[in-house]
Amino acid sequence: MVIAPTRFDQIIDRFADLSVLVLGDLMLDEFVWGKVSRISPEAPVPVVEVQSSSFYPGGAANVVRNLTSFTRHTTAVGAVGRDETAARLKELLRVDGTGVEGIVEIPDRVTGHKTRIIARQQQIVRFDRETVGPIGEIPRGILIDFLQREIPKHDAVIIEDYGKGLLDQTLADAAIETARRHNKVVTVDLNPKNPLCWNGATAVKPNRSEALASAGLAEEEGIAVVERAAAILQERWKTDYLLVTLGEDGMLLFQATEPPYHTPTRAQKVFDVSGAGDTAIAVFTLALAAGASGVEAAELSNHASGVVVGKLGTATLTAAELRASFRPPGFGLGLPAI
Q: Which residues contact 328 (CB under 8 A, 6 or more apart)?
């Protein structure tokens, strides 16, 4: 499908006015940049001479970061520790204009912190510091109260599950039920290690492996097994859309009353797939909230993912980059827009 330039502008121009709440496992991403010129005499490992380091919102906070490229009306909701990592993460979010009042601090919890060592445009190693486990009844109650107050003020809700213990069925149900009661778009990026029921969600966006695992199917070649998994999940959750990302094979969109829609990968080059799923659900959700059809939203999401995998690190993109990604081989030419 090719989206005509006027239709593209109609959708994208609405993004800036939309407000989105993101509920999920909030983390801090750290990138340590250096160069390698020798092997350590102590062990057969490279010695990285550190040149610089940088910090970015990670996990569900990276979804927020992707949203802020298009709209300044964002709210982050989740749980962190009472530590230096949490303070740095919240400050980064504030700088982007994101509301952080929905972030609960839990004193004995370690805020998720992923450190990646990069040399010669390659990731050498990653190490994680985090607490994985339930957040407890009192923090959960505080979050539910916040969601019930704030979701009506937003146009869409994204639930981002990294499997770190924030989300349980009670919290997921509270978010979805509140969103649907107020006619808000609510999308989910699931984690099959935390098998929750997503009934009532507008859309669920697993990758191929997550879709098969959630449906209880074994890995095998081809698209047919993805279609079987999608049928199982749609029957189970009754969602309007199921968007399955397929890596180098693009995306498959499943809708209740339409045949599956396949959009092939739009990536011109691939440097780093970190965070591509976060970009995909951010743009897909914005597009739905802006009035795009499921197919239009899938195309925009796929193009956006194709841009960010061509960048190193958990990257984001701008509206101009997204628009440019539609130009080759002919922006606005070919099939009529839907």
A: none
Q: Give me the amino acid identity at 37.
A: S
- The whole-number pLDDT of residue 118 equals 92
Phi and psi based region of residue 73 (left: phi greater than 0; alpha: psi -120 to 50; beta: remaining): beta
Output the domain CATH number for residue 142.
3.40.1190.20
Mean local confidence (pLDDT), 40-52:
93
CA gap 317, 84 in Å, rounded: 28
pLDDT tens digits along 125-147: 999 999 999 999 999 999 999 99
Number of domains in the chain: 1
Place of tokens 């449906």: 215
- CA-based nearest residue to 194, from 221, 220, 222, 166: 166
The distance from CA 214 to its chain's CA centroid, rounded to whole angstroms, is 18
67 touches 16 (CB < 8 A)? no
Mean pLDDT of the chain: 90
One-letter amino acid for residue 262 of the chain: H
Tokens of 250: 């693009």
Q: Is the pLDDT of residue 335 over 60?
A: no
Q: Is 335 inside any structural domain?
A: no
Q: Is the whole-model pTM more than 0.85? A: yes
Domain for residue 125, yes or no? yes
CB 267 within 8 A of CB 246: no
Q: Tokens for 173?
A: 């149900």
d(CA 29, CA 22): 17
**CA 310/CA 267 separation, integer angstroms:** 7
Structure tokens at 333: 């030419």
Domain that holds residue 314: 5-36+48-325
Of these residues, 29, 155, 189, 278, which one is catalytic?
278
Torsion angle of C-alpha atoms 288, 294, 300, 305, degrees rounded to 10: 100
278 has catalytic annotation: yes
Residue 336 lies in a domain: no
Q: Is residue 219 in a domain?
A: yes
